[in-house]
Amino acid sequence: MTRTKRITIQQVADEAGVSVQTVSRVLNNRSDVAIETRKRINEIMLELGYRPNAMARSLASQRTRTLGLITEDFTDFFFTQVIAGAVNEAREQGYLIMLGSTERNLQDEPEYIRLLSERHVEGFLFSRHSTESESMYIVDLIRKGVPVVTTAYHFLDHLCTVVDVDNYSGGRLAAHYLIEGGHKQFAMICGPSRWKAVNDRSEGFNQELKWKGIIIGSEFVREGDWSYVSGYQAAKQLMMEGKTFSALFVHNDQTAIGAMRALSEAGLQVPEDGSVIGFDDIPAAAYSDPPLTTIRQPMREVGAVAARLLIQVIEGGESKECLDGEVLLQPELVRRASCMNHDI
Amino acid sequence: MTRTKRITIQQVADEAGVSVQTVSRVLNNRSDVAIETRKRINEIMLELGYRPNAMARSLASQRTRTLGLITEDFTDFFFTQVIAGAVNEAREQGYLIMLGSTERNLQDEPEYIRLLSERHVEGFLFSRHSTESESMYIVDLIRKGVPVVTTAYHFLDHLCTVVDVDNYSGGRLAAHYLIEGGHKQFAMICGPSRWKAVNDRSEGFNQELKWKGIIIGSEFVREGDWSYVSGYQAAKQLMMEGKTFSALFVHNDQTAIGAMRALSEAGLQVPEDGSVIGFDDIPAAAYSDPPLTTIRQPMREVGAVAARLLIQVIEGGESKECLDGEVLLQPELVRRASCMNHDI
DNA sequence: GTGAAAGCGCTAACAT
DNA sequence: ATGTTAGCGCTTTCAC
Fold first, then answer.
1. Position A315 pLDDT exceeds 70
2. How far is A83 from chain B (nearest CA, A)?
3. Which positions on chain D have an atom < 7 Å from some protein CB?
4. If one looks up domain B167-297 in CATH, what number appears?
């Protein structure tokens, strides 16, 4: 590799006939530099093509303007969008993101934390779901006073800021829309019950129905595993057992598409014979057959807000209301063809 | 933020009663340290919870073990998988990746290059498609001798290593499978013609047919824009114009699913009345109706190989055969239900 | 408004 | 096998 010698602050200083210090002041936009000196130095920097060395700056200033983001799964649309949102937001605030992933093995987590810590990232973003037990590595980090924000990963004792979608509200949204559509008989296929998101979605859905005096029996509720196949099977089973319903709420789109498939194979038309509403708004939801009505999760927004809060903590030193807070972003109903409105 | 004072190499040295240098040697796994001394130092490091400061090391050694990866679009499954592959591979080789994105605006490219350069990434990975004109910023980088590898982004004069899927071979694979299935009448919906990948896929497809004495007229070829809708429309048009075909090759899955929709709306059964084969193997391909037979692109592998080559260039200083090479990874046929084999 | 001195935590090059 | 001496390129602190 050609190791082209870069221009240093010293050379700029020499060229400008000032001290290194003055150049540094210009670099950091300090006010105490004569406007004329500043101008001259800026010109020389441009002329020489000077590029500050971030490592040297970091070493002296103890700031890296770099964030560590550790994600759980690149295959999941949710996570990739969170990353996208975080990268863009960080960039706008002058930060860069170093990426880690624990998708192969959760054991990679401490290793990535170590690697990123050594590189002195100023804070950590953990993008994962609330399912397995709490990571002691993350807890350690927080205890040490390292700024940490998670997305969708809740700690029991609100140890750190978490940004998430308001799943309860999403469940209510789904129920509300279906009730509005004139439906009376409901069924639900949820995700694995150990997920917090699943409980929240169910609770919201049930609560909204309850307010209308509707209670769905547990025989109308099935548990899937987020997969297409599990939706297909759950719907099939529901039909085999003769459970009739006019509206089906499914906890994610992939599963919902599987369920629609089962309905259509059974000779039922969606939405005429049964409305289906999903959750997520993955790309495929727009071109399933029929296109899926769903509760859209603002995933990029989640990533962006997480990055923003993290930076706030880093720079503010403390931001009371958000340090141990929970920020819930509102999901949104996306109307497509898979739901029938009986009142229209 | 609590700025906990970290243990430095000096403290370890003091504790061990040796010089800083010796500790540094242990840190860098140099051979010239007494096995006993090494052991003692390692113990003390552990005891003290010593973590080397990567910035200081970088400043002194001129090495950051960090790569810059600039991607074009986080919404595209292809790119996210490339990132996943690159991150994992880099990690295995002891490198970390800093992420940039030009998805909002291509003008962000020079800015990210600047930011990453300042942080002294040792090489750049550009993940994007070959469509718009060549980026002068990337060319500049290469000219300066900075290690650069791209995925799917080809320079006319082979300026740098590019890792891509063998699209020509993918086209042939599709044709071969359809011919094998006994098909005689073919149609194709391709992507935008300015894309290199599109030309390669078409060429491979046509060539394979030609070898069997088959030539498809241009009236059986439509151009889509990768979208679901464009596939739907193209297929619809094909049928309206009375073009009959028993096998349809579509340049990506999303478009293929749109085309299948059009066929089914026209009362045609896939695959009985017409086989459809896509390209990509996006998640939705597995649960389209019917599940889509497709040419799978090894996207993670592309990312991994790109990272590996980049690191090779960085560390080797030169690796003749790959410095300006083109590495083509073989796609793979994924058989699902959307294709009919007439010979069985 | 500007400069000099010191040092951030480490490695390189040379000594011993 | 280990220590000494110089930096890496910048910022900080304090002096003028």
1. yes
2. 8
3. 1-5, 7-13
4. 3.40.50.2300
